[in-house]
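Researcher: Good morning. I'm working through a list of sequences from a screen, and I'd like to move beyond sequence-only analysis. For each chain I'm collecting a predicted structure so we can compare shapes side by side. This is the next one on the list. No need for commentary yet; just the structure.
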Amino acid sequence: MTPTTRTRWAILSLTGPAYLWLACTIFLPIAAMLALSFLDKSPLVPKPASFTLANYGAFFGKPFYWSLTRWSIELGFWVTLFSFLIGYPAAYALAKRVKGRWREAIFLLIVLPFWSNALVRIFSWTMVLRSNGIIDLGVQSIFPGAPTVDLLFTYPAVVIGLVHSYLPYMILTCYIALQAIDDSLIEAGRSLGASKLTTFRRVVLPLSLPGIISGSALIFVPVIGSFMEPRILGGTKGATLGMNIEEQFTVTANWPLGAALSFILLAIVLIIFGVLYPFLRKQGGAA
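Model: Good morning. Structure tokens for this chain:
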């Protein structure tokens, strides 16, 4: 056996179990769910099932599902936008302004929400956003007689809850990209007479685009399929395609339709990224 062959076998023996495990845990459930989406009966029904395309036809034949899809995409857009507007300045300050132990302390605060249960975090927002909640009491104490602030079961409440859940992803990805920018490039721009705004627009922002794109993808994809935050904070006003999919599995027991809607949602995400890919590749290459 040659040294090259031994090296290949060593790499295969070290990485093979991990790749095999990932392939089994990812592709087997997806393949089972895909097969389920073409059946006319749920596995819970003790009768033989047959092949059908009716579950996919239901999506294209009912405007209700189109409305849910549009609302889900809009929700993903707004949550991603607000996460960027809040997270990018925070990541810039951490990467370029804050030094030493203060940076470690702020990082701890950023990742702190991950240490608590997501359901507890979302329910805690109901205590803040409802009438007679923390925000309402704060407004009433400053402006006595002001109208009651009741954001619970509204669209803004869903956006607030989701931004709170996914903001750390934007901060961390942007921080990594900003931290990798050599400070000498910024100093060179300033020494050539560029203003702070021009230096940021021509140097910092383009070089940090990979972090922005990664953070946006990490937020947008799970948000358009989210169901817990819209259900708890939005009620009937937070209806999304993800909520409908969850109901097909847990309420109506129509698993084939839920599986079909899941793959349609996956296809929509892939189409969106396919359309944006030339732009993202151009920006990534330029950065």
